[in-house]
Specification:
About 25% of the residues lie in helices and about 25% in strands. It has 6 helices and 16 strands.
Length: about 270
């Protein structure tokens, strides 16, 4: 009887390990459409691919599986919304593998997350210089124009140290423009909306780490238990905010019912 129980326990443990490995290494693509009159005819169909919270995770040699899935979405631009590394087990090479591959697919833009600012200074400097050398554009409290077919929209990126307060408001974004924001953390949703943002792309919550049917995410950094902003699309005023579940893990090393996620957002005009 004891031997039988040990066999059952062994099989159960193996099943749990296989399940967790499958959960944490199977990439899922989530596709959203942002439909608005603010999207010009020239930008109709413009695709943004969002990658967030890699936390040094590796998806195949040179990030091949991650990059292959990203390329399948045929992005016009790729945006990386922070925590590309993890301050607890830093591996700059894994982050730069993603950067080197992403820029070969589409122009790539990046903002810092909290883990970048928790790095030792020499690691932070190595990461930022490596990203720049790869061709990734780092948006450090900066607004740029993204152009296609003679039309454009505004893309603003916030450093993770400046998400609250007046940094974004002081940029005086043009209300007549279509304004897209890259910011690592979603809990500042009202500040983003008040500053005139139309579409915000965020991460940080890791999908709530563990997800339960009809409940959603269980815990997220800076939001605590049962976070309001753990994944998907949320609205504040006239703004839509996308929260990516991200790709890797940090303090809690495993996801449950929460696949690593690549987000694709297609800009669309309303059908006439």
């Amino acid at each position: 009887m004891k031997k039988k129980r040990l066999i059952i326990l062994g099989i159960s443990a193996a099943a749990v390990l296989i399940f967790c490995g499958w959960q944490n290494n199977t990439l899922q693509i989530s596709r959203y459409s942002y439909v608005s009159e603010e999207v010009s005819e020239q930008l109709d169909g413009f695709t943004i691919v969002q990658i967030s919270d890699l936390h040094n995770k590796r998806f195949g040699k040179d990030q091949r599986r991650l990059l292959k899935k990203t390329a399948e979405l045929e992005p016009d631009i790729i945006v990386i919304t922070g925590d590309i590394v993890d301050s607890n087990h830093t591996n700059i090479d894994n982050a730069l593998e993603l950067a080197d591959g992403a820029v070969k697919i589409a122009p790539t833009y990046y903002v810092t997350g909290n883990h970048e600012h928790w790095l030792e200074q020499n690691d932070f400097d190595e990461l930022i210089s490596g990203l720049s050398e790869s061709g990734v554009k780092i948006l450090d409290n900066e607004r740029i124009d993204i152009e296609k077919n003679g039309s454009h929209f505004s893309l603003t990126g916030l450093d993770d140290l400046y998400l609250g307060g007046n940094t974004l408001r002081n940029m005086n974004l043009d209300d007549d423009e279509f304004n897209v924001l890259l910011a690592h953390e979603p809990q500042y949703i009202e500040e983003y909306s008040a500053a005139g943002i139309d579409l915000a792309l965020t991460g940080h919550a890791h999908g709530g780490q563990f997800r339960l049917p009809f409940v959603g995410g269980i815990v997220a950094p800076d939001q605590g238990f049962f976070p309001e902003y753990s994944e998907g699309i949320h609205t504040s005023g006239g703004m839509k905010m996308v929260v990516s579940r991200g790709l890797g893990n940090s303090i809690i090393p495993v996801r449950i019912f929460n696949f690593p996620e690549i987000v694709g957002i297609e800009l669309r005009r309303p059908k006439s």
